[in-house]
Amino acid sequence: xxxxxxxxxxxxxxxxxxxxxxxxxxxxxxxxxxxxxxxxxxxxxxxxxxxxxxxxxxxxxxxxxxxxxxxxxxxxxxxxxxxxxxxxxxxxxxxxxxxxxxxxxxxxxxxxxxxxxxxxxxxxxxxxxxxxxxxxxxxxxxxxxxxxxxxxxxxxxxxxxxxxxxxxxxxxxxxxxxxxxxxxxxxxxxxxxxxxxxxxxxxxxxxxxxxxx
Length: 213
Known about the structure:
This protein is of the alpha+beta class.
């Protein structure tokens, strides 16, 4: 037989008639709650000790391309547990900083990913050991290119300049485009090829060939 409706009033009546029992139960309940809170706090302290103190580091707000500035619009400070902070992580905005290579949204900014302080966007895009050289745009011969594309630099020689040699050759291959305007495409030429490209302008026609991925 179901006695729950009669059982509950009897318990309540018994507690009213025995104030000491009621007080004891209240104390027991309070102690149990306190123990639960203490255990939770202890677990939190243990986890905090395991992860170490949090450190605020610069994180990219969005995907950044080489040459993009590192400032309040492109980055923000985010607290990271100590063990998760990579070596060289930036904890403050660098003066005139730019990224030298692509950085993805949410990625921690590291010193090794930055270009030297104060350089222009084009200079920041130059890989080590290269020189920026502008190649004039020739209508109908220069393919449409964008910053970050790779091209081959081809030289077509006049007959008198070619003599008995080949009429054309590849001066440099797989060269990175670092700037594009209506009149010129600027390339990150290998250091030893940059002077030869300057000479090639006077001896023949320089053409760019877009390299596929």
